[in-house]
Design brief:
The complex is a heterodimer of chains A (about 375) and B (about 260). Chain A has about 375 residues and is an alpha/beta fold. Helices cover about 40% and strands about 10% of the residues of chain A. The longest helix of chain A is centred in the middle third of the chain and has 18 residues. In chain B, strands 5-4-3-10-9 form a five-stranded parallel β-sheet. In chain B, strands 6-7-8 form a three-stranded parallel β-sheet. Classes of the chains: A alpha/beta (about 375), B alpha/beta (about 260).
Chain lengths: ~375, ~260
């Protein structure tokens, strides 16, 4: 069954009704299992599983330590352009938002790279909006070629591309890809992506597949929590990750759990993801998929992030700037894509990870 | 073949008296690595080239490995023979010595080795004067080909990496031990000192343990426990202690009537 067919199936499934029927015994039995079925996974995502949160946490922590050790990968994002032709109701880069947009020149990218690598960061996540006419493949290739002189690993979170274009970026030195479906529910997807290329649900859904075909080593996916039904989105994110894990066994799959905050011109989220359910979803993912990476951004507050270190997270961003040119202050006053909650420096985040009894890992790849 | 008075283990030309090999991954802090090494006396430690950062002056993992411990760089992250060969060459240029542990893995979930690519990489690197230690599925045909290609040892997995499940591949590993000329080092899956002791009693030449040590509450103590288990298992093997036998032979009821003329 293709992943799209699985989504269609999920559209017909009554998640609320299932969750209301799950019993405490079901959840206890699920927690005892080593290999979880999809229904087990759903049991853990159901509100009733909150009664077993501590047990889930103990098991998730032990599984994470076994597979990932006492380590946390550290990276930072670098926004190189905020031009965007999409109209996503929840995003600060929305084409209808008027603000002075900025694209870094190649020398400016080098300046940013210097400033960011001076903080000790060795893995960079490069971001753009979706405006291929402003940031064409040739520009991105040049950007990667410059960045690889400063970083050991380059991840891309750019607009979805065809396999050949991704392959060119792989060739240039990028090794990982991040692409969020934002919302797996197809109706809501159409409602929040009003125009632009991103309105094409299918093309976006199969982006990780094109990335894997192009040879990326690691792919991060996820939903933006706040747009759709919480349980359904958490479930489909997990099922998507599992589908990719099985189909591309040589690719490391990571899940991220961004949740909506108020962006400029954005709508208010109807399905707020609380801290407790955020943790519940992370733990459910871990129990369902022992080897999946879980990445936590600086959207989350310092106090909350500190706790997540020992709850199954495997990757943290640190010292992040989400405005174009933010590290070298090229951009004066720019609009950020979203507000950062954890404003601590790389050094401070590193110290926190160590204090929690974990080793911060900056370099975990070699461009070969 | 490796037997001498001191019971030295030879890997290529280099001799080792401690038969516990260790790893650098998964520790809560890099400062624990030298303490762990000191506690267990391991003389060889594996480190992933992907984790070595020459640009980092303070946290560079190599700074935490004492000079008297031999580095065994590994090709973790390689998905093909070609990538493994490139990583090995980078490691050598970076001053990590000429030992190389080949890991070619195309499955992130179980981290099982790709045997055919591992053989290709071994053939190339052995010719380039590397001392090659390939991580492999315990398969005698492949092990013989690796030996012929110039591998200095074979490193069959006991169970999937990081699984701590012990010697799930025991019967296959026994076949290797009985038939290989080069040393057999059991790598991956060893979760408890008793697993390590069992491997050594069976006649394995050494074991490599990382996850079980690194993720324990007290890695130094865990490493020491493994080292003692390895020594005990080795002594039991050398003493040729009575093995479990399926066929009793003490009273010879079947052949006792036979006499030489």
């Amino acid at each position: 069954m293709s992943f799209l067919e699985q989504i269609k199936e999920a559209d017909l499934f009554d998640f609320n009704r299932y969750c209301s029927c799950v019993t405490e015994q079901d959840i206890e039995a699920t927690i005892q299992k080593e290999n979880l079925t999809r229904f087990d996974f759903l049991n853990l995502l159901s509100p009733k599983a909150l009664l077993f949160l501590e047990t889930m946490a103990v098991k998730a922590t032990s599984i994470t330590r076994q597979y990932f050790g006492r380590t946390i990968g550290v990276y930072a994002p670098m926004y190189i352009s905020d031009f965007c032709s999409n109209q996503c109701t929840y995003c600060g880069f929305n084409v209808k938002n008027s603000f002075k947009r900025k694209k870094l020149s190649i020398p400016e990218i080098e300046k940013e790279a210097q400033a960011l690598s001076d903080t000790g960061i060795r893995q960079v996540l490069v971001l753009t909006g979706e405006a291929p006419e402003k940031t064409p493949l040739s520009y991105l290739v040049k950007a990667v070629e410059i960045l690889k002189q400063y970083f050991a690993s380059i991840s891309l979170e750019i607009f979805p591309m065809d396999t050949e274009d991704y392959a060119a970026l792989r060739q240039a030195g990028a090794d990982s890809l991040t692409v969020f479906q934002e919302v797996y529910d197809r109706d809501i997807y159409q409602k929040v992506h009003l125009s632009g290329k991103k309105a094409d649900y299918r093309y976006r859904l199969f982006t990780p597949d094109r990335g894997a075909a192009a040879g990326f080593r690691s792919i991060t996916i996820g939903a933006l929590f706040g747009l759709g039904d919480l349980v359904k989105e958490a479930f489909l994110s997990g099922i998507h990750a599992q589908f990719l894990e099985k189909k591309y066994p040589d690719v490391e799959i990571l899940l991220s759990i961004p949740r909506m905050r108020k962006a400029k011109g954005g709508i208010s989220p109807e399905n707020i993801l609380s801290d407790i359910r955020f943790v519940q979803f992370m733990l459910a993912w871990r129990l369902f998929m022992p080897k999946v990476g879980i990445s936590i951004s600086t959207r989350e507050s310092p106090e909350f992030r500190d706790r997540l270190v020992s709850l199954g997270a495997t990757k943290f961003s640190a010292g992040s700037r989400t405005d174009v040119g933010g590290y070298s202050s090229i951009g004066e006053e720019n609009t950020a894509q979203f507000e950062i909650s954890d404003n601590r420096s790389v050094e401070q985040v590193t110290a926190m990870i160590k204090q929690s009894g974990y080793q911060p890992v900056f370099k975990d790849w070699e461009i070969i | 073949m490796e037997q001498d008075k001191n019971d030295t283990l030879y890997l290529g030309k280099q001799g080792f008296s401690n038969r516990l090999l260790t790893g650098t991954g998964k520790f809560a802090s890099r400062e624990l690595i030298p303490v762990m090494l000191d506690a267990c006396g391991s003389e060889m430690i594996t480190v992933a080239l992907r984790r070595i950062d020459k640009m980092d002056q303070t946290e560079n993992i190599l700074k935490f490995i004492p000079d008297n411990v031999t580095l065994l760089p590994n090709t973790s992250g390689a998905r093909t023979a070609k990538e493994a060969v490139r990583i090995a060459r980078i490691a050598k240029q970076a001053g990590c010595g000429s030992f190389i542990k080949i890991e070619v893995i195309t499955d992130i979930k179980y981290l099982l080795p790709d045997n055919s690519e591992t053989l290709k990489a071994t053939e190339i690197l052995a010719k380039e004067d590397f001392t090659v230690l390939p991580y492999m599925m315990p398969d005698l045909t492949l092990a013989k080909k690796l030996e012929q290609a110039g591998a200095a040892a074979v490193m069959p997995l006991g169970a999937p990496i990081g699984s701590n499940r012990g010697l799930e591949m025991k019967p296959m590993i026994e076949i290797l031990i009985q038939n290989m000329e080069i040393p057999v080092i059991v790598d991956a899956g060893i979760g408890k000192p008793s697993d390590a002791a069992l491997a050594m009693e069976m006649g394995a030449d050494a074991v490599l343990v990382n996850t079980a040590i690194a993720t324990s509450w007290d890695p130094a103590m865990a490493a020491k426990a493994f080292s003692m288990a390895v020594k005990a298992g080795r002594m039991a093997y050398l003493a040729e202690m009575a093995q479990d036998t399926k066929y009793a032979k003490a009273s010879s009821p079947l052949t006792g009537f036979l006499r030489e003329d």
